[in-house]
Every structure is written in structure tokens, then in C-alpha cells.
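Q: Focus on the shape:
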Amino acid sequence: MTPIQLLLLTALTMTAFAANSVLNRIGVANLGMDPMDFAAIRVASGALILWVLVLMRPAAPLVVFVQKRIAGALALAIYMIGFSWAYLSLGAGLGALILFGVLQVAMFGWAVFERQTIPPLRWLGAGVALVGLCVLLWPTGATAVPFWGTAAMIAAAFGWAAYTLFGRGEDDALGATAGNFLLCLPLVVLASLTLGGGPITFWGAATAVTAGAVTSGLGYALWYRVLPALPTTTAAIAQLSVPVIAVAAGAVLLAEPITWRMTASAVMVLGGIALSLLPRR
């Protein structure tokens, strides 16, 4: 994979991640879907499209019930449930901001725990990008961040961090993602049967199917495809662009206001990413 191909595929993946925030917010907050039902439909549609693609390719039978797949499925379920629940009270941009801000901390912490060599420019880039996120998140005046929505999104962030770390050594991106979705499905269906029960509207279900089949299933398969070419800390920093994309999409599709803080944050986040990707001498 050439550097240009890696850049384009990473950008496409980050756009899909941002679309998940917008679609989830629309389905749960605007169209009245129960968050657990939304998560169940999302995972089911993602599993379906992924397994259709797996069965269409000429390859050996896929091994699903192995320890790494089960761990990945559990991490994915934590992410899916927390993510959907959080968007009952969080805006699309704010939710993505919390998710990937916490993800940044979790993945850098894991890199330090593994004693990976982190170049100074990557530390600087991460710091600049994280400050940019804090500029956007910091409450002013009477603005308050919903506690339970924030707690749910933090749990989702740790689930996504684990899912990302599990994907680093995958040789078969599509097969791994399909296996994770298949094993994740019973967990989110159980959550839906236990905690769900709200009305399922046509457009709400259509939003969940789009989020599952396109921006989640195909998006996560693409993410597992590019992960082996990205260092852990670079993958963490690249994902900091998602809140910026989500804020812009929320402004266009959900009429969420764009302020000077959002603009300053976008400049700092993207500048931090650029710093972290500069080659070392």
C-alpha cells in the first residue's frame, strides 16, 4: 500500500466513523428509536453485509470461535451499547469529541504500557490535538455536559480502543470484522430484549441499517485493513479528526451551531495530526 493510498483509505474510514455519530444521533434523538434496538439493528445489518462479502470471496472457511474473536466481539458490544445510549443526550459532534478524546488517552496509555518508542513530534502532535479537543469540550456559562451520556460514551471509547488494539495483527480484515460482528450480535440482542422495547419506525430502522451495513460493517473492515500499516499512536491521533468531521456534519444536517471554538479546535486537531505524521530525520 502506497502512502497516498494509506492516506485516502484512512480519510475515508474517519469519514465513516463520523457518519456513525450523525446517523446514531438522528435515529435515537430525532426519529425516536430506542438506543438498544438501534444498536441491535445496526449490528445485525453489519453482520449480514459482512458475511455476504465473506461468502462471495474464494477463500478457506473462516474460523470464528477463537479467543481473539470473542474478545473483539465483547469490546465491540461495549462500544455499540455505550455509543447508542450516549446519543440520547449528546449532540453528534460532542459525542464524537468525547469518544475519540478518551480513545486518544487510552491508546497512548497502552503504547506507553507496551514501552513503544514514541517520537517527540508524535507526542507534540497528540498534545496539540488534545488541547484542541479540550477547547471544544470545555463548558462555558450555563453549558453542562450530560453526565450519563458522557459516562456511556466513555465506556464506548474504552470498548473501541480495545477493538482497535485487537485489530492490529489481523491478516484477514474482512473475515475478522465479520466474525466480530457475528459474535457481538447475541450480546446486543440480549441488551435490546432486556433494556429496549421502544417503537421501531421505518426511517429509524433505515438509519440503523445504514449505520450498520455501510459506515460500521464496511467502515470497520476498512479500518482493520489499514491498521497494520499504522503505528498505535498514529492510529489514535488520526481518529482525532472524527470529531471535527462530525461537528461539520452536525452543523449541516442537524443545525448544530458552529462557533469560533469549533473553528479553533478544528485547526488545532488537524494541525496536531499533521505534526504527528511528519517523518523523523
Notes: The chain has a mean pLDDT of 83. The CA atoms of residues 244 and 266 lie 6 Å apart.
